[in-house]
Amino acid sequence: MSVRANRGATPAQVLVGIALAAAIVALLWIGWRQSAEPAPEPVSATTEASPPTVPSDRIDPANQGRLIEVSGQLRGTDPPRDEQFGIRAQAGAIGLMRGVEMRQWEESCAQDSCKYEQVWSGELIDSSGFRERQGHQNPQRSPFDGQLFNAAELRLGAFRFDPELAAQVLFDDDSPVPLPVRASQLPPNLAATFSDREGMLYTGDPEHPAVGDVRVRYHVVGPIEVSSLRGVQDGQWLKAPPPH
C-alpha cells in the first residue's frame, strides 16, 4: 500500500501515515479471516504463462481451477458502520476506522532538565514515572477506544473475494483516506458531548484543548478500482494463486 504525502508533510507525518495504512490492512485481514464465511478448500490451479482475461460481471464454469486475470471494482457488500457513534462509510467501502487520541502530557528530558508539553496521542502516556509529576498527571484510561469495522463480504463483480487476495490489492492502493464527520451525525447522547472541527470530533474546546480531552477521526478504505489482478477461480471465489 502506498500513502500520498501532503505537500509540506514532515518525514514523521509520512511514517505515521504508512504505519496507519499498514495497521488497517492487517486488522482488516484479521477481521475478514475471523468473521467471513470460510472459502472452499484450495483446488489444483492450472497455471498459464498468459492467463485469460475474463469479465468480472459473470462467472464462467469453464474456468474452474484456472488462473485468470480480471479487472473491476473491489467493493464491500454492506457499508461498514460504527454503531456507537452512528457513522457509516459510503456504499461499497471495505473498512471504516475510528481513531481516538487523547490530550496528554509528554515529558522530554536532556540530562538534568525536563520539558513538558501537551500533545495528542493515540496511546496512553504513563505519567507515573515523570520527574515532575505534580501538575503533569495524565488520565489512566480513555473514555473511547479506536476500532476498525469491516464490510461483511468483499466482491469484485460476481466474484467473492478471498481475504488473502484482498490484502494484496489493499497494499497497492492509496488508502485509507480521511472521512470528515460532524457532531450533528452523532446520536443525541454523544452530540451533547462532542463538537466538530475540520472533520474531526472533539470533547472540550477544540481551540484550547485540555489534558483529558479526546478527539475522534475516521478513515475509510475503498471501494478500490482494480486495473488487473490474477487469481484462481474456485466456484464463486477468486483466490490467491498458489506459491511458485
TrEMBL record:
Protein name per UniProt: TMEM43 family protein
Keyword line: Endoplasmic reticulum, Membrane, Transmembrane, Transmembrane helix
Topology of the protein relative to the lipid bilayer: Multi-pass membrane protein
Transmembrane portions of the chain: 12-32
Keyword Transferase recorded: no
Subcellular location(s) per record: Endomembrane system; Endoplasmic reticulum membrane
Keyword Endoplasmic reticulum: yes
